[in-house]
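Q: Here's a chain of 145 amino acids. Please give me its 3D structure as C-alpha cells.
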Amino acid sequence: MKKVSLLFIFAMFLTFANSFGQARKELNFGLVGINYEIPVHKDITIAPGVGTNFDLDWINLGVKGNYYFDNAFGISDSAWDVYGGLNVGYSIYNGDNDLDNSSDLNLGLQVGGRYFWNDKWGLYLEIAGGNVSGMSPAIGLTVKL
C-alpha cells in the first residue's frame, strides 16, 4: 500500500509540474524522480523536486543546488552539461520493515551530466547521495521549457 502512495505522490507532482511549467527553465524526469531547474545565475540553478530510490523505500522531498562547470572546464559545446552540487530535504521512510530506518532531514551531494540531442530534449545521468536515504543514482530525460 505504501508503494501505491508513492506512485500517487509522483502523479500529483507531475500534474503540478505541468500546470506551472512555463515559469521554469528545465524539467528533469527520470526513473526515480522529477525536478525543476530554476536558473539563479548563469552557472547556478536550484531545483525543487521529489524522488525515491530504486527499491521505492524512501520518498525524498527537497531542493538541489547545482553549479554548472561548463565555463570552468572550457566546455563550449551547448549540447553538454557537467554539474555538481548540494541537496537538502526531508526523507520519508516508505519501506516494509521497521529496522533502524526513520524519516529525517536529508543532506547530500550530487554530480552529473547531460547531453542534449536537439534544442529541446536531453538525457541526464546523475549520482546523488544523502545522509538518510543513501545513494540515489538517476537516469532520465530533460526537456527545456
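Q: Can you summarize the key feature?
A: Confidence is low (pLDDT under 50) at residues 14-24.
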